[in-house]
Prior knowledge:
The chain has 118 residues and is an all-beta fold.
Amino acid sequence: MRRLPAFFAGAALAAAALGLSVSCAQSPPSIASVDFKVMLDETSPGSFEERLSAFATWGDSDGPRDFYSIRVSHGETGLEWTIDASDASVRMRGKDRWIGSARLAPPIGESIPRGDYE
């Protein structure tokens, strides 16, 4: 389990794990690191809404082409997001390739729930 420092008005977001699914059943990936952040996204001029940024880097002997989706879920509320390969963003940090999304939105009228994610 990984605890993140406080973001925006002292709210803390805890992250446990990020589930990666693969399109081939040959060998499962090994998650090396996850990075979660609560961010404010400008949805229209002067209007901001919370978004969850969830990115992972992993090792897979079959290679990154096996990537199918990332599933992020909040245990207490049952809220769940799936980031499909076609919707995922890739970010490079040095030699590390991070895949995920910075635009995971909560249900309309709610904020990103704090607590444990898997």
